[in-house]
């Protein structure tokens, strides 16, 4: 994966004519269409590193060339973010909330334009692109409220005349390393909480979605500058794997919030731990839906369809495993196949499209390898399994959504244990709920899971101690598509991180227990007597 990404770095520049389709979207967001785009921001825009080439997954067109940060620039930006942190930590939290409210307004005003850029550069369909920007807007709303509610606690002391306070203070510099598949929202989840908590944030986006990052940073920067806040409070360093490594290793970064693959997350986690930094990991998912005989099929079918095909199977929460009760399996699969046959494939910017392209040609290879493996283990491919090769789909990374029935549902085979980031759904047939729960849990990942039933006894099992071990445990709701209010994240090899709502904000602050003595004596805790003659 990484090797191919490096290929996106180019050293040559050539003049080119951008399609009207792309130019309209870039112009609406103030992104240059005929010059190289500076990809570094810390109050001023620049970039003197290599060029990153942003390619449209639908047409193969080069959308823009972005100048990434040189190693020297990265260090300058880290210095600037430290300075910016010293400033922002003393701005009262509700005042920070007011600035976030303005960022929220500015993002909402550009929701459709930014959403279109997500579709253009990442490849997800229009409504999902807009939804992603809406998620950023929503988390800003949440963080505006939070800016008046990031409360500590007063704890009862066993010593007379003493009080214990649990105090939250800003943490420092937070670096956000993001994946390609949510090129706007994941930064939003992190930035909104980090800013409300009084930190400076430095963003290293995926090397294949630099334009989304530049566009979002421009919108935030305008609001910061309008309020006289240092721009490095929301700094940007576009870059590649090496930039990510340098950030991860830097002692100038207090928290690394990483969203990406398990493979890279393992490296990032170890590196940050080894220097005793804080790390938040949001890694791969391998999510299952379980359909019981009493499930409402009219609800379950479209949810599985969206879960498996939405974002062309490139969501961390995409449905990758489908466990069907034997008594309804044939009927469910017949109806699901029918739905698959109706899927509207094409330009993600067209209103009617439901299935866009995969993000890169490398992802197409990953898809083909997974299909090849399924065939080699004798799985029955009941639909899909090929690329779309007719014009105009042959210009982009379009693959057929696939349903396969491997011979065994035993999670020991890699097809059940590995996240294939493409629209491939593997089906297993079960007889008892307990068996399906065991299959659900017996994989390395633990992000999202979904049970379809009307029986309250099944619900109790599913959400209880012997139930799903994932971070997201849904009932009559698909695996894909979470709201911002609850903490979002997964267990096990998904990394145990939590972002967005719930108590996730508590990770973006440093906690101190402060014992204060208001009395004229200084007793020790637990009655320890260390009296001396004075
Ligand atoms: P990736 O791991 O290839 O890249 C993620 C980021 O890490 C990129 O910015 C990349 O430049 C950077 N990077 C690469 N090597 C690095 C290194 N050695 N040190 C530091 N940074 C490095 O992931 P991807 O292909 O962009 O995204 C897809 C993956 O992300 C999937 O596994 C998906 O499930 C996961 N994801 C998880 C969540 C979640 O919330 N759990 C959300 C979105 C995506």
TrEMBL record:
Keywords: NAD, Oxidoreductase. The active site is at residue 282. Pfam families: Aldedh. Its EC number is 1.2.1.3. Residues 51-511 form the Aldehyde dehydrogenase domain. It comes from the Eukaryota. InterPro entries: Ald_DH/histidinol_DH, Ald_DH_C, Ald_DH_CS_GLU, Ald_DH_N, Aldehyde_DH_dom, ALDH7A1-like. GO terms for molecular function: aldehyde dehydrogenase (NAD+) activity. The keyword Membrane does not apply. PANTHER family: ALPHA-AMINOADIPIC SEMIALDEHYDE DEHYDROGENASE (PTHR43521). Belongs to the aldehyde dehydrogenase family. Homotetramer. This is aldehyde dehydrogenase (NAD(+)).
